[in-house]
Amino acid sequence: LDRKTVTELAESLRGALLLPGNDGYDTARRVLNAGIDKHPALIVQPSGATDVRHAVDFARAHRLLLAVKCGGHSYAGKSTCDGGLQIDLSTLRHARVDPNAKKAWIAGGSLLAELDRESMAFELVTTAGTVSHTGIGGLTLGGGFGRVARRFGLALDNVSAVDIVTADGQLRRASADENPDLFWGVRGGGGNFGVVTNFEFDLHPMQRQVVAGELFFPLDRARDVLGFYSEFAAVAPDELYCDCLLMAPAGGAGSPMAGLSLCYTGPAARADAVLAPLAKLGKPMVDTVGPADYVRVQQSWDDSDPRNSGEYLKSGFVDAIVQDLVDGIVDGFEPDPGRNTMLYFQHSGGAIGRVPADATAFAHRGSLANMMLMINWPLSTDGGPHVAYLRSCWQTLERFTDGWYTNEVSNEPQRVINSNYQGNFDRLLALKKRYDPENLFRLNANIRPTA
Ligand code: FAD
């Protein structure tokens, strides 16, 4: 690109164009996983949908690799790139709520905290993830599990419309009435179809005060905890969300533990009865379960931000936590002072499973939980042995999974990505050919239009 071409792009924008060396360039290019260190040639920080359109037109016209960043939480760093153009949506953060219509309009670069804060001010809620600095864009377009998903469905089940800039540079609205094919595809197709500049969400009445917290036991109780969880999670009412985790912190930062993280959002009078079975586990070493403000609960895991660490994860959906899986986890989970090691089940089911698998592009409706094995390590040390450990442990666990969360895509072979869309793949492929025939939006769980 010559100087004149770059200047023309800068002049077409109301927002900023950042080049290497400019103030803010490093913050914009970086993602949560500090192990990803990529350098886009150009970063556009749009002031609105028109800037996004100019950036998309520019990337298409000059055949540039295009990355779209919202919260930057993609484990594999799909929201940044080397040498291409990054659209950094952090300049598009805004939430507006209409309490009478029970609707929220959230700009496409917003973080979950904005959605929770603005909607809960009216005792209204919609599903968001469990860490409040996650981006609304990536989380919603690929799924959106969270503390109220079993009541109200995935984040994407609550989207009633999007404004999206497609690969041809057009700004389209997609809803049940307008561009319904695109509306179907964006809800589960990840960022494959364009840049969403605005989401419209349905909201649900919910009281601010919930019952939430964590119970932790020494890691040598892991077998009991997992066994208990396999039954408790399977029969839980929709109002109860319960994750299960094994965690071993890096060098001396605490003892390895197995436990449950839960949030009950149903009527307060029923909380004791719903949580009574937890007593079967005996006295925990840590117990923080009690009445809590929902917005604070949504921020309670925010310190799981590893911005100075390398990070690696493998994940897959499980329909049940069978004894062989429990054995595989307990035998394979290895604390190591050089890394944080975590095995995590994120609770699914409830309302998520009552949506037909072809109602949106998100196919994995029948699972009980998303099982994740995650590690992170200080960047100053060699992550190689830790990644090798995780891969080998995952080999034992993977056979218990059925598909994986597209938001956790890494560098899987194309056939693995295609088959993960299950029965929705052919329809997604037809949509991709129609809306993005040159595969401009390919840094995601990519549907290749030439497949
Ligand atoms: P980014 O890295 O900014 O983007 C991820 C992908 O989405 C990229 O391909 C990007 O191009 C695309 N994208 C982002 N915004 C847009 C947009 N506006 N238009 C078009 N494409 C866009 N998931 C859950 O479901 N529930 C959880 O509770 C949860 N907790 C998490 C906690 C942590 C600490 C982390 C790191 C991840 C968690 N996730 C969770 C996974 C999360 O859904 C994905 O990492 C998701 O991709 C994050 O979205 P983002 O916008 O922050 O990411």
Overall geometry comes to globular
**Count of DSSP E strands?**
19
Mean pLDDT over the full residue set: 96
Report the portion of residues in β strands. 15-25%
Number of helices: 14
N- to C-terminal separation? 30 Å
**Rg (C-alpha, Å):** 22 Å
Structural class: alpha+beta
Question: Which ranges are low-confidence, i.e. pLDDT below 50, for 5 or more consecutive residues?
Answer: none
Helical percentage = 25-40%
Q: What small ligands are held by the chains?
A: flavin-adenine dinucleotide
- How would you sum up the major sheet? 8 strands, antiparallel
Task: Describe the structure in your own words.
The chain is of the alpha+beta class and about 450 residues long. It has helices at about 5-10, 25-30, 50-60, 110-120, 135-140, 150, 180-185, 220-235, 270-275, 295-300, 325-330, 385-395, 415-420, 425-435; strands at about 15-20, 40-45, 65-70, 85-90, 95-100, 105, 125, 160-165, 170-175, 195-200, 205, 210-220, 240-250, 255-265, 285, 290-295, 310-320, 340-345, 370-380. The strands form 4 sheets. Strands 12, 13, 14, 15, 16, 17, 18 and 19 form an 8-stranded antiparallel β-sheet that branches. The protein has a 5-stranded antiparallel β-sheet with strand order 5-6-10-8-9. A hairpin with a 4-residue loop joins strand 5 and strand 6 (about 105). The longest helix has 14 residues, at about 220-235. The structure holds flavin-adenine dinucleotide. The site of flavin-adenine dinucleotide has 35 residues, from strand 3, helix 5 and strand 10.
